[in-house]
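Thread: "does anyone have the structure for this chain?"

Original post by V.I.:
We have the sequence but no experimental structure in hand. Need at least a predicted one for the grant figures.
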Amino acid sequence: MNTFLFGKTKNTLMFIVKVAVNLSITVVLQYLMGLFGIQLLTGSIVNMMLLINTLFVGLIGSSIIACVTPFIGILLGLSNNIILQIFICVANILFVTSFCLLNKINFKKDLKIISLIKDLISVIVTSVIKYLFMFYITFKLLLPLIMPNVPQVLSITLGVTQLFTALIGGMLYIVISNILKKTLKQI
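Reply from O.Q.:
Generated one for you, tokens below.
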């Protein structure tokens, strides 16, 4: 199977199992962080997990998880607006897709500093892409067509909060992915 699309899986059944396990871990963390009631914390952890999932289940698996987590947020009581969750779902897919594509760029693999810089650039660029979609496309263009009297507070939630949660989640990804990569090499 194509590792870019499906991660390092040998067959379809293994792919499905990996997606289910990664989704379960993501949902448990989403629930636990949601208990604190702080969107910045919950969103950052979910974004971190979306990027970590790219390591294990590739673009397709990560996109599946990126679609499911906003709606799990409704079931967990973290959100109550299904229309906004649809936009967050699309933004999450853009987030993992752009991250996967940027990480496909190969530099000299023996230089750890190059890898760290590539991760930093990937996180910043993908966070800005997610922000631009959530704020400009969703709030300024699409949402007013569906909800004509959109409250101003939604622009902050859709824009700045999404940018910060993506950046924080990305930085957490960099730290944890380096630990995971070292650990997985030893196994």
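V.I.: this helps a lot. The chain is about 85% helix and 0% strand.
O.Q.: and The chain has a mean pLDDT of 86.
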